[in-house]
Amino acid sequence: xxxxLLRLHSxxxxxxxxxxxxxxxxxxxLPLPLxxxxxxxxxxxxxxxxxxxxxxxxxxxxxxxxxxxDQRKLKxxxxxxxTAPNEAxxxxxxxxxxxxxxxxxxxxxxxxxxxxxxxxxxxxRSKDQIITAALKYLETDTICYRVEEPPSxxxxxxxxxxxxxxxxxxRYNVVIGSSTNILGPEIPQATMDTFRQxxxxxxxxxxxxLEYVITQLKSVVLAFALIDKHVxxxxxxxxxxxxxxFQIGHWGNVEWAHDVDLYELRARTAAGALFVHFSxxxxxxxxxxxxx
Length: 292
Hints:
Elements: H1 2-8, E1 27-29, E2 47-49, E3 55-59, E4 65-69, E5 72-75, E6 83-84, H2 87-98, E7 103-105, H3 110-120, H4 127-136, H5 151-172, H6 189-199, H7 204-217, H8 220-227, H9 233-240, H10 242-251, H11 257-280
Parallel strand pairs: 1-5
Antiparallel strand pairs: 2-7, 3-4, 4-5, 4-6
Helix pairs in contact: 3-7, 4-7, 5-8, 7-8, 7-11, 8-9, 9-11
Function: Plays a role in the assembly of the F1 component of the mitochondrial ATP synthase (ATPase).
Membrane topology: Peripheral membrane protein
Subunit structure: Interacts with ATP5F1B; involved in the assembly of the F1 component of the mitochondrial ATP synthase (ATPase). Interacts with FMC1.
């Protein structure tokens, strides 16, 4: 059935266009929505009339990259200078600002918001605390909870979720399992220790993005499968919504509302996955040199 679901939804492309270059000067602090995946730090302002014309990237101290709106340097909601650790991530953020039209829609700027979260760390969490919070989702992982009826949904869950569950158990040499019990499967301590060690290999920025993906999919298993490129963003999202898609297939859905929710979740998940990959390594954009 997942294959049929995939045919119903076209893939969403993501283009990262280079920003326009302009001088850098004074700093600009903006009322951006401040997202922390386990907090309630949100600005009241979600939209604002566009107040700039040009977006540019400049080199900062320590190999960091800064974002400039006209001649003003962008700052985080916490008042820090907005910096990205590599050029690829800086271009992704600049693209979000550059593609805004007459109104700046802060709630749609997922890469910018994730950078703000990593820079400001509004809940003052350490790496260990982020890892612990992320692993909590394994205890209630979406694909570990199975229904006992109807038979058609039971079969669908087994057919679509078991291969991913088997993959992660083989990939990390762990045991997770599934259960129809409301308490879910009992996760062995050895499995938790293995995943904790794996998550510990990520830097603070990458963990921020990975936890965000986990919260969007409500699944550690699907998040790992996505980051490891075992599944696509589209597949991960549909697998996380398997029961909902099943119900819609039987009973129909509210016009446009379902598609909006689906595309929003896909956009957030894609942004989180890109954020993890961009912040996990030193990414430099290569440009061809023009020869006379």
